[in-house]
Amino acid sequence: MNLNVVELKAFVPARDFERSKAFYLALGFEVPWSSHDLAYVRYGSVAFLLQRFFVPEHAGNFVMHLLVENADDWHAQVVAADAAGGFGARIDAPQDRPWAIRDFTVTDPSGVLWRIGHNLPRAADG
């Protein structure tokens, strides 16, 4: 029996499907495939499915976590992409968290919250 998992993808809601695709493209993601109501969105080896589906309560409580090598570099990329001005995204500054992650948040045009961060070294148990 072969029970290996190949991939896991979330279905991310989009209030304005075309605007959301443009937002993710501006952040450096690519969209190798798209139909009228679904898009395959990826960055390197990670991916999600953007869907033409929007319920405010759902989108406003949807959180994605992107683990990266350097959160500060990603923050600079998001700011340079004019995510706030061009797409109305909310962007917080990177912070070190008590759970040993340095991350920042960005909210996409549909209200989906992204936490983008990298692992911090953990203090040795004493």
In CATH, the homologous superfamily goes by the name 2,3-Dihydroxybiphenyl 1,2-Dioxygenase, domain 1
Count of extended strands: 9
Q: Please state the average pLDDT score.
A: 94
H/E series: EHEEEHEHHEEEE
* Number of domain modules: 1
Poorly predicted runs are none
Which architecture name does CATH use? Roll
Backbone structural class = alpha+beta
Backbone CA Rg: 16 Å
Described by the principal axes of the CA atoms, the overall outline is: globular
> What distance lies between the first and last C-alpha atoms, to the nearest angstrom?
44 Å
CATH topology: 2,3-Dihydroxybiphenyl 1,2-Dioxygenase, domain 1
Proportion in helices: 10-25%
The number of helical elements comes to 4
For this structure, what is the CATH class?
Alpha Beta
Classify the beta-strand content into a percent band: 25-35%
Major sheet details: 5 strands, mixed
Layout of strands and helices, then pairs:
Elements: E1 11-13, H1 17-26, E2 30-34, E3 38-43, E4 46-51, H2 56-59, E5 63-67, H3 71-80, H4 83-87, E6 90-91, E7 95-97, E8 101-107, E9 113-119
Descriptive tags:
35% strand, 2,3-Dihydroxybiphenyl 1,2-Dioxygenase, domain 1, 126 residues, alpha+beta, 5-stranded mixed β-sheet, single chain, 4-stranded mixed β-sheet
What does this structure look like?
The protein is an alpha+beta fold. It has one domain (11-119): 2,3-Dihydroxybiphenyl 1,2-Dioxygenase, domain 1, CATH 3.10.180. The chain is 23% helix and 35% strand. It contains 4 helices and 9 strands. It has helices at 17-26, 56-59, 71-80, 83-87, and strands spanning 11-13, 30-34, 38-43, 46-51, 63-67, 90-91, 95-97, 101-107, 113-119. The strands form 2 sheets. Strands 5, 6, 7, 8 and 9 form a 5-stranded mixed β-sheet that branches. A 4-stranded mixed β-sheet has the order 1-4-3-2, with helices on one face. Strand 8 and strand 9 (113-119) form a beta hairpin. The longest helix is centred in the N-terminal third of the chain and has 10 residues, at 17-26. The model has no long low-confidence stretch (mean pLDDT 94).
